[in-house]
Design a protein that fits this description.
heterodimer, A: 849 residues, mainly alpha, Cytochrome C Oxidase, Chain A, Four Helix Bundle (Hemerythrin (Met), subunit A), 3 domains, two-stranded antiparallel ribbon, two-stranded antiparallel sheet, 25 helices, 4 strands, 64% helix, disordered N terminus, B: 236 residues, alpha+beta, Immunoglobulin-like, 2 domains, 5-stranded mixed β-sheet, 25% strand
């Protein structure tokens, strides 16, 4: 056995100088039984619908994602079969269009994103030294939204009505005129439904990393995986809202004829492209970062050393997060944007290679400075290097505007994106699975299968895609079904198709290897890679509660396995029968309070079904019944709040011999509070994207200025100002409801806030009567969307005010307890701020017109 | 050095190059350029290919050495300087700056300026192309599926769409430009020699996308004018 490489305290993830005395040791088996009783899933099929445990949900996400990967892979093989010869008669064009659209959409939205969510959900609490994600019920809700949405999307293919406009869904091809069928609606509604899981995961990951780390694990020293996933989550928070907004606008255009993208009425198809790529490019890095995080975790451990340049890697992650939002236009170099503007995006696209290069050289340097052990994960990491470096270099080529004009929309780009995504995501994921499988199933792999699978995937991949660069340079476009006049491409495509089958067989063998390991592998010993990180400080396979006691300064790494199992860490066992974990200060990791997490419940699946009923009714075109889905969702969501809160004060919990912390009901800075703020960041991005739409269409779209508006009348301005005044008064009421919470006066203020919110909402609805017909012009449609945004937030505020009032009446609010009031305050202020900004925009439009 | 060994080296190299260059040939190949824009881009491509090939080899060699290299130390500040500052920042920034400058310079030379360059119209509609070009005596002539331009002179193409987004692309002459409803994009191209150049729609536009082709006929401006006929059934 090699000694642990950690030898100086500087490298420890936990600040060992902040001493917390150890709890007295107990019998590990007794602790295990006590905790497992509280944390385990219900047995049998009930467990499937009620589990909220991050290990269960994370594994389920990954398994489901792999099933969709297989479906997407079968579609890829059908594409390759069609293209193998120039007159391919395997598929007709309509079906071919559906298949390539579905291949791209499935791989992006139903495989890559859920796969990384699954890895994050499963791994994050373990590597950070805690017992679960911050919001276990939200994990389960995300999973069921993903599952239901994914099933609908895939079923559409069986019924022959799958999306057929390309995974990028460019309008006008996807509007009602050119896609009258249900196909485009399946994409818009299905993907948006699935994206609820992405937003849920983004919020959870952010809050878990900021608030649920091991005691005294400073942000600046947490495992690199934490930084990578924090970067990923922040990008998801800011990257997904433009896509969600674009999908909503396009669906509203299809369903109700509001002309956001219709040039004849002041819209522009380019607005869709901007919104789509504002998401679409960061998406690539959203997929890459978790994979890079796995590499930064695995490479030093298999090189028997520590990572080279921790600070530089953190800087690289932050750099990628920022830069990746500045280069979406490189997908639009051929739409006719002036060359000087393109040069800016070209430079940004090339610059993004710098943080990537820093990481690649840091990894190579780490291997150079250590002693590499050539185990199976290392083989997949070599596959990553060989593939991703080339994908990165072709990416820099495509960032050069003139070359992009030639290569855009050809098979050169197809080759490039597969080098980046399979090289930068799939190979590291395969390495990650090979590395963490012993922790998932407690077993060691069957010798030889993994190596064979690697070589088949590697050879198959490069055989398929390397010459595809040449196919593209010889002029073969993307998304064509036949090429009867271009015999010169035939041998290239035939080679690609042949190797494609080898690659597919390789992935099948990999799946077989995983199943064999799960079922027949020999039992693995503890910490098989001798890693220092905390996910290995637990028995194999990982127990439902992760840690019998939570790691602190005396249990800083995987070496503390036995001490933690004996309860010497913090918050040992489950003496109150609750799922408890520590919430810490975001920066230093100092323990703040004990959070009681949700236990097994069917509420998430019921909520996903309620949300699904809305999407289903929209998809069926039953628009006037769709509000029923919203009402059903509100009823179920109300139950979520009902389960939170408590009617009495609880005594502080003894976390360690001289450390007692309050329970989360009795503190203000709860995990829920942090999560609400994170949610509002995403919400603000959605609103910002809407304003971007207003600005973009005003400046760029033809058909402006629009016809005269009837909005400029005095009564509407008065009504809007009155609504704003009511919202501001509501914000004051929400504040007083908290500051007077200990007295009977608190209840009065929640009631006043409720009435104020209701009145403001009525006035907003009244404003709707005065709006111009939104089908007339894009400006009027955008005003309708802006008002809709305010109304939706009004309903949310109304529900939160009502929740606060009920909390006050039921005695859930007291000197220590605040109920839903802090969340209500945040939403009330957000509602006020966005509505004021909206009013300013409309007034400016009218004054300048 | 005598000329003999030189030619001895050249001959097998030339023999090897023949099938290689033949593989680059084709009516839609960007690697057999026939106009200044396409020539510049092809040159940029070959330069980037050589550079990328060298960088790939360099990284693979480093990786190979890293696998062999055995060390018992933990990476210190010196190693960090070498790998992060030296290779990660220094090397990548140098390469990218040179490349960006080169790309910008080429791009600037291709953009459309307001000079007296003749203008033709390309109108895309599902799934055929309509062109308007100056005919005999300069009067505009509308054709289906074939664009007639004088060889050896630059021309601007004003690209518009009747319905969905399409993209105008003649690979041997230069890059592509999208046809977007409600927008009018102008794109400068030139065919160096008289000849027939294949063109196509490069943006997915629905069922007929695979067949939405056209043809550019570059005629000798000194010779007699061509007949400006349509392609049969709008398709070349």
């Amino acid at each position: 056995m090699t000694p642990r490489p950690q030898d100086d305290t500087q490298n420890d993830a936990i600040d060992v100088t902040a001493d917390i005395p150890a709890n007295p040791p107990q019998r590990a088996l007794r602790l295990h039984r006590e905790l497992d009783e509280v944390w385990r899933d219900l047995p049998g099929w009930r467990g499937f619908f009620t589990s909220v445990n991050h290990s269960t949900i994370g594994k389920r996400f990954m398994a489901t994602a792999f099933v969709f990967f297989a479906i997407g892979g079968v579609l890829a093989m059908m594409i390759r079969a069609q293209l193998a010869t120039r007159d391919g008669a395997f598929l007709d064009t309509e079906l071919y269009n559906q298949i390539f659209t579905m291949h791209g959409s499935i791989m992006m939205f139903l495989f890559a994103i859920p796969m990384l969510e699954g890895l994050a959900l499963w791994l994050l609490p373990k590597i950070l030294g805690t017992r679960d994600m911050a919001y276990p019920r939200l994990s389960a809700l995300g999973y069921f939204c993903y599952l239901f949405g994914g099933i609908v999307i895939v079923l559409s293919l069986l019924f022959g009505v799958a999306p057929n406009g390309g995974w990028f869904m460019y309008v006008p091809l996807t509007d009602k005129t050119y896609s009258p069928g249900i196909n485009a609606d399946v994409w818009l509604l299905g993907v948006t439904f699935v994206e609820i899981s992405a937003m849920a995961a983004a919020i959870e990951i952010t809050v878990t990393i900021l608030r649920c780390r091991a005691a005294h694990m400073p942000l600046t020293r947490m495992p690199l995986m934490g930084w990578y996933l924090l970067g990923t989550a922040v990008m998801m928070l800011v990257g997904f809202p433009p896509l969600i907004l674009g999908s909503i606008l396009l669906e509203v255009q299809r369903a109700f004829d509001w002309p956001f993208f219709d040039v004849a009425r002041g819209g522009s198809p380019l607005l869709w492209q901007h919104l789509f790529w504002l998401f679409g490019h960061p998406e690539v890095y959203i997929i890459f970062l978790p994979a890079a995080g796995a590499l930064s975790t695995i490479i030093p451990i298999l090189s028997r050393t520590t990572i080279l340049g921790y600070g530089a890697l953190v800087a690289a992650v932050i750099g990628l997060v920022f830069l990746s939002f500045g280069l979406w236009v490189h997908h639009m170099f051929t739409v006719g944007i002036p060359h000087m503007a393109l040069s800016f995006f070209s430079a940004a696209s090339a610059l993004v290679a710098v943080p990537t290069a820093v990481q690649v050289f840091a990894w190579i340097g780490t291997m150079w400075e250590g002693r590499v052990q050539f185990r199976l994960p290392m083989l997949y990491i070599m596959g990553f290097f060989a593939t991703f470096v080339m994908g990165g270099l072709t990416g820099v080529m495509l960032a050069m505007v003139p070359f992009n004009w030639q290569a855009h929309d050809t098979h050169f780009v197809v080759a490039h994106l597969h080098y980046v995504l399979i090289g930068g995501f799939v190979f590291p994921m395969l390495a990650a699975i090979a590395y963490w499988m012993p922790l998932i199933c407690g077993r060691w792999r069957v010798r030889g299968l993994g190596e064979a699978a690697f070589w088949m995937i590697f050879i198959g991949f490069h055989g398929t895609f390397f010459i595809m660069h040449l196919t593209g340079l010889l002029g073969m476009r993307r998304r064509i079904a036949v090429y009867p006049e271009n015999a010169e491409w035939e041998w290239l495509n035939l080679v690609s198709s042949g190797f494609g089958m080898v690659q597919a067989a390789g992935f099948a063998l990999f799946a077989f290897d995983v199943v064999m390991q799960w079922m027949f592998g020999r039992r693995s010993w503890r910490n098989p890679w001798q890693a220092p990180t905390l996910e290995w400080a637990m028995p194999l396979p990982a127990p439902s509660y992760n840690f019998a006691s939570l790691p602190g300064p005396r249990q800083p790494d995987a070496g503390a396995l036995l001490a933690l199992a004996r309860g010497e860490g913090l918050l040992a066992g489950a003496p109150r029968g609750w799922r408890e974990t520590l919430a810490v200060e975001p920066g230093s990791g100092k323990p703040q309070h004990v959070a009681v997490l949700a236990t097994n419940t069917a509420l998430p699946v019921a909520t996903a079904a309620a949300i699904g009923s809305f999407f289903g009714l929209m998809l069926a075109g039953l628009y006037w019944l769709a509000p029923l889905g919203i009402i059903a969702t509100m009823v179920v969501v109300w139950r979520w709040g009902a389960l939170m809160g408590t009617e009495r004060d609880h005594p502080p919990v003894q976390v360690a011999p001289d450390m007692a912390l309050p329970l989360h009901w009795q503190v203000r800075t709860t995990l829920g509070q942090t999560g609400t703020m994170v949610l509002l960041v995403a919400d603000a991005t959605l609103y910002g994207s809407l304003l971007f739409g207003v600005g973009f269409l005003t400046v760029v779209a033809p058909g402006w200025p629009p016809p005269d508006s009837g909005v400029g009348t005095g009564w509407m301005l008065l009504l809007a100002l009155a609504a704003l005044a009511l919202m501001a008064a509501g914000a004051i009421a929400a504040r007083l409801a908290e500051s007077r919470r200990a007295q009977a006066g608190g209840r009065v203020w929640t009631r006043i806030g409720l009435v104020l919110a209701g009145l403001a909402l009525v006035m907003l609805v009244g404003l709707g009567w005065g709006l111009d017909d939104p089908t007339r012009h894009a400006r009027d449609a955008l005003r309708g969307a802006i008002l809709g945004f305010a109304v939706v937030h009004g309903v949310i505020v109304l529900m939160l005010a009502l929740r606060s009032h009920v909390d006050a009446r039921r005695g859930r609010i007291g000197l220590e307890r605040r109920g839903a009031v802090p969340a209500w305050q945040l939403f009330q202020v957000f509602w006020l701020g966005t509505t004021a900004a909206s009013l300013a925009v409309v007034v400016a439009q009218e004054v300048l017109a | 050095m005598s000329p003999l060994p030189k030619s001895c080296l050249y001959k097998p190299a030339a023999l090897l190059a023949v099938p290689l260059l033949a593989a680059c040939d084709g009516p839609l190949s960007t690697l057999t350029p026939a106009g200044p824009a396409a020539v510049q881009i092809a040159r940029l491509w070959w330069a980037m290919l050589i550079g990328s090939g060298l960088i790939t080899l360099l990284v693979m060699a480093m990786l190979w050495r890293a696998l062999r290299h055995q060390s018992h130390d933990h990476p210190g500040p010196a190693a960090e300087r070498r790998w992060i500052i030296g290779w990660g920042l220094g090397f990548s920034l140098t390469v990218l700056t040179v490349l960006l400058g080169f790309g910008l310079w080429i791009g600037e030379r291709m953009i459309v300026r307001n000079d007296a360059t003749p203008l033709v119209e390309a109108r895309a509609g599902r799934w055929a192309w309509e062109f308007v070009q100056p005919g005999p005596g300069g009067a505009p002539v509308t054709t289906q599926g074939i664009l007639y331009v004088p060889a050896g002179q630059p021309f601007d193409v004003a690209i518009t769409s009747f319905d969905v987004i399409h993209s105008f692309w003649v690979p041997r002459l230069g890059g592509k430009m999208d046809a977007i409803p409600g927008h009018r994009n102008v794109h400068r191209l030139m065919a160096a020699e008289p000849g027939i150049y294949e063109g196509l729609c490069a943006e997915f536009c629905g069922l007929g996308h695979s067949f939405m082709n056209f043809r550019v006929i570059a005629y000798d401006p000194a010779g007699p004018l061509p007949a400006f006929t349509d392609a049969p059934e709008g398709r070349p």
